[in-house]
Each structure stands twice: as structure tokens, then as C-alpha cells.
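Q&A log
Question type: sequence-to-structure
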Amino acid sequence: MMNKFLIILVINLGMVATVLAGEISGELKCRGVRDCSDVVVYIDKINEDVEVPKEHVVMNQKNLKFIPHVLPIVVGTTVDYLNSDDVLHNVFSPDKCAEKFNLGTWSKGETRSYTYNDIDCGAVMLCNVHPEMEAWILVLQNKYFYKTDRDGKYVIKDVPQGKYELKVWHEKIKGKSQEVEITSDETVIVNFKLKR
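Response status: OK
Response body:
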């Protein structure tokens, strides 16, 4: 009877351990740029199955800009490039991790798609019709990331227990990665300083 009780207790404790999750939050200080917009804070690697979104995400081309300017995604995600302008647009990337793709040129209301399959890819998006247009796709291993607004504050929720490497990415400034450990349903504060 005692053995059955211990087995049930161990099973229940194991279930609790997998349910407990914490969060990581903090603030960035950014030097050398106007503000802390478009910094991606992310857990580098995590030991769990990657859930690829079934729905595509959209990067719009509107008012001769890519919107959003920075788009973090999970590996395997398909991005739809929508032209919302009255002029022709193109999308291409010279980066090897994005297979140096060129989706051609298309008119208003049309969409072209590309699926990103290389982890740790920071690929620039360009338009050969409008050379001033530029955006970035950041391909990550997992869903535990956050893209900052101007204030530089971030929060990554529902992080499973464990030790992780927390990284930051920005197109112009850099910051050092930091180790973080989640031991319970707590909030761990991690701040970053980024500069050129």
C-alpha cells in the first residue's frame, strides 16, 4: 500500500514540476541609437518540442516601408509578404541562411511567401525597386522571446524551470548574453546594456 502511495506522489510531483513556470523580465539601456525599439530578447535554446505556427505571419509593405521593421519568428514559420502600396514591390534577401531568396516583383494586394528553416538566422529584407526599404527577420529556436518598444522593457512569460542563456539582438547595437535560472513560478529580473 505504501509503495502505491509513493508512486502516486512521485507522479504528482513530476506533473507539478512540468506545470510550474516563471517569467523573465527586465529593462534595456541602449547607447548609440535613438531608443530601445526593435530589440529582441530571447532564450537561445530550450529542450522542448518546437511548435511551428500553423498560421502564416505577415510582413506588410506599406508607405514604402516594411511593417514590422523587425519580425522575430520560430523556425519553420512561413512569412507572407503583402504589398499594400500602389506601386510594385519586391522582396529579396542576400543572406545565406535565407537561401538568398528573391520572390520577384508584384502589385498591390498580392502576397508572396517564404518559409524560414534555419535557426539563428538574422536575415535582412530588401526591395530592389526601392533600395531605401529594409527590414529584418530573426529566426529563433523557440517561442520564448520578446520584441521591445521604445521604453526597452520586456517580459517573457511561462518559461519552464531550467537554466538558460538569455540573448539580445539588434541590427546596430550589441549586448552580452546572460545566464538565467528559473526554479519556480517566480519572476527573474535580467537587465541589459547595449551599445555599438
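Response note: The two ends are 65 Å apart (CA to CA).
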